Amino acid sequence: MAYSNRHYEELKGAYLFAEVARRSSEYKRANPDKKVISLGIGDVTLPLVPAVIEAMHKATDDMAKKETFYGYGPYEGYDFLLEKIAQQDYKARGVDISTKEIFVSDGAKSDTGNIGDIFGEENTVLIADPAYPVYIDTNVMSGRKVVLVPTKADNGFIPEPPDFASDIIYLCSPNNPTGAVMNKKQLLAWVGYAKKHHAVILFDGAYEAFIQDSSLPHSIYEVEGAKEVAIEFRSFSKTAGFTGIRCGYAVIPKELKLQGKNGEVSANELWFRRQSTKFNGTSYITQRGAEAIYTPEGRAQAMQNIAFYLENVAIIKKGLDACGIEYLAGLSSPYVWFKCPGGLSSWDFFDKLLTVCNVVGTPGEGFGECGKGWFRLTGFNDRSNTIEAIERFKQL
Ligand code: MLT
């Protein structure tokens, strides 16, 4: 009999959002007459913006004609998209990233999970707690040692470099689940730590488009020296409603080196090797859709959707204010991170919110120890559902 990957036995239960879905489906099945509103998983509800739809229709027409048909694309993505990313996401913010350092993918979830393929099993991985569960679970699956860096409410849930060494560090800003955004000084401290310990930072910037404060960095590469120590991940899921379409990208600077058997090796080359072996590229139609977000009208339309979701966030926070519930301040994230009322545990509060208010949220504990007693709601539902959910919540 074939052996299983034994590391899977070390995982703590089901994947968080699968467990949330299981519990809410069970409740819905038992209570078919109830209208359950989900402010749980961070899934968008607004349709793709017109500029994206138009570009995807046109790309579909390209695929219908022999002269403009596309088969397998480049593993790293088409130049038309890579150039827009390099120009508008980086050069426009004073960061020099070449198209050869960008790899288009099917999203940040896959990238942040798959990146472990280029790192040895012997690395120690540092993860700020609470965290997006993909970081921990994928490293446990690969048998790497995970060390958690606790973050606390009184420090705004901002992780600080510890006084011990590690090899790989996951940072997420704006943070999922807390919504905390790291400033340049805080990122600089991590870049300094990575340099000191020859570590690599895996910087998840999936929620970058939600940043409202112009003083805050959108990319870790806005910090001096970060190109030597950091890989960055971005996603079109929350930026432009691509959760169902799937598109994102990773930036792996040429300067970033890892320790090989016989000296230094390029992380960029290893990732190309990995992607060209295991991934056949993001579809042409999808990449044309993503490209449309970089046109002035596409950008404006996507930003309008983000403003809409942030208004939902403001509505949820107003509701929490009315109930005197403590939450993490700031408006640069689609998530509201708050303390469970009545001293309830996260899962007990999840059950209560589901059964009494018929509202689904995400228990903070699912993101780690430091999320115990905290809870996450999203601003991604539509306006009437958000208002209704928060009215039910206020009654509770
Ligand atoms: C979340 O709710 O944290 C996200 O939607 C999950 C994801 O992006 O995979």
TrEMBL record:
Its EC number is 2.6.1.83. Its cofactor is pyridoxal 5'-phosphate. Pyridoxal 5'-phosphate binds at Y72, A108, K109, Y132, N176, Y207, S235, F236, S237, R246, N280. Pathway: Amino-acid biosynthesis; L-lysine biosynthesis via DAP pathway; LL-2,6-diaminopimelate from (S)-tetrahydrodipicolinate (aminotransferase route): step 1/1. The modification N6-(pyridoxal phosphate)lysine is found at K238. It comes from the Bacteria. GO terms for molecular function: L,L-diaminopimelate aminotransferase activity; pyridoxal phosphate binding. Keywords: Aminotransferase, Pyridoxal phosphate, Transferase. InterPro entries: Aminotransferase_I/II_large (IPR004839), DapL/ALD1 (IPR019942), PyrdxlP-dep_Trfase (IPR015424), PyrdxlP-dep_Trfase_major (IPR015421), PyrdxlP-dep_Trfase_small (IPR015422). Residues 34-382 form the Aminotransferase class I/classII large domain. The keyword NAD does not apply. Substrate binds at Y15, G42, K109, Y132, N176, N280, R376. SUPFAM superfamilies: PLP-dependent transferases (SSF53383). One of its GO terms (biological process) is lysine biosynthetic process via diaminopimelate, diaminopimelate-aminotransferase pathway. It catalyses: (2S,6S)-2,6-diaminopimelate + 2-oxoglutarate = (S)-2,3,4,5-tetrahydrodipicolinate + L-glutamate + H2O + H(+). PANTHER family: AMINOTRANSFERASE. Involved in the synthesis of meso-diaminopimelate (m-DAP or DL-DAP), required for both lysine and peptidoglycan biosynthesis. Catalyzes the direct conversion of tetrahydrodipicolinate to LL-diaminopimelate. Homodimer. Belongs to the class-I pyridoxal-phosphate-dependent aminotransferase family. LL-diaminopimelate aminotransferase subfamily. This is LL-diaminopimelate aminotransferase. The gene is dapL.
